[in-house]
Amino acid sequence: xxxxxxxxxxxxxxAFSLGAWLFAGVAGAELVTNGxxxxxxxxxxxxxxxxxxxxxWSVYSGTVSPxxxxxxxxxxxxxxxxxxxxxxxxxxxxxxxxxxxxxxTDKLSMYAYYTxxxxxxxxxxxxxxxxxxxxxxxxxxxxxxxxxxxxxSDILKTxxxxxxxxxxxMAPTVVTADLSAFAGQTVRLRIAQVDNSxxxxxxxxxxxxxxxxxxxxxxxxxxxxxxxxxxxxxNPAGDATTYHFEYGTTTAYGTSTTAxxxxxxxxxxxxxxxxTGLQPGTTYHYRIVAANSGGSAAGADATFTTAPLPQISRxxxxxxxxxxxxxxxxxxxxxKRPPVGTTxxxxxxxxxxxxxxxxxxxxxxKAKGRCVPPTKHNKHKRRCALGRGKLTFNAHAGxxxxxxxxxxxxxxxxxxxxxxxVISTTTxxxxxxxxxxxxxxxx
Length: 443
What we know:
Layout: H1 18-25, E1 46-49, E2 55-60, E3 81-86, E4 90-99, E5 106-116, E6 134-141, E7 155-161, E8 169-178, E9 186-195, E10 200-211, E11 214-221, E12 228-235, E13 242-248, E14 255-256, E15 260-261, E16 269-275, E17 283-292, E18 295-298, E19 302-305, E20 312-317, E21 321-323, E22 330-331, E23 342-348, E24 352-367, E25 370-372, E26 383-395, E27 398-404, E28 417-425, E29 433-442
């Protein structure tokens, strides 16, 4: 074959703009335009042949090569595939530039195959003038590099390459490459074939680069006793994408929110989901997870802590025996003790509504399930603690002081005697927290 006369063949470039095919290439998680050649032509691709060569790449169907009429494998997928063919010595390149979205996981895959008539001979050159050059290779390159370069500094990754002395033919085989290291860059996929020893029909089909979405966990907000709002950022990487949050008390999570749509563009979207049913005062782990046809991505683990359940502790009183006064009870803002009355002191770990319930032990009688004042009719009933009234305050986190002079309201005051006060705070759905003190009012 090396004695064949060369037939002039000019370079061929598909008639479309760079912007157009890049736009088409990001119309989904699939970043390659027309990777299956099912348009029946090279829309989305560039072709280049070495000047003076007698071969090219063609889109074909069937099992016969378009120029030399040699038997070739049928397209491995769909109706069409791309094949190199020649009538004489040739060096033919098929290529496409691919924009990889930033932060994505990107996978290249395709069918590669070839039918030759002599063993492979693969010198480090794509020049068909180099003696004994019979090779087929697929590279991911820097777009700024010369198209025919095989310099290691110009090739980002070699996906497939025949080796000197290699087999004459290879059946359709899936080849893959991880392009994630180049996310955020535009790379050039080059599919090259050289023959100057004998015929070589190299084929590719189902060329695909898929990009997973990106997911970034953001700080949780609105943490309450039993709920919070989880936040994150999702970039769909050009494909219909869903997201959900995983959460739990460990990094095993165990609970997920319902999957929601995050769009199909190349824009970062702020996403959130409210969650409920949590335990108070508990640290939770969470992360955002996004998925589309190109794969899935999980944001980093993050934590938040729900608000603590209000608890009362260290309750005490300044005087256990004191004289009553007409003054009303109030939250103390001064440390000075009053000359009459007492000061109830207690601590709160969180703000809450606090109730002071006053009773007189043994002063009531149990009747019909209730504790009522004694009468001549019930004086033989079992004694019980008779309720004498309640006071309610908004307490703050930390130490609280309530000055109490015996008055429950403007019209009701405690008479001299022995009393019990229960200081309590209650949160719906949880057991109350309380402390009990006793005191005596004297005349």
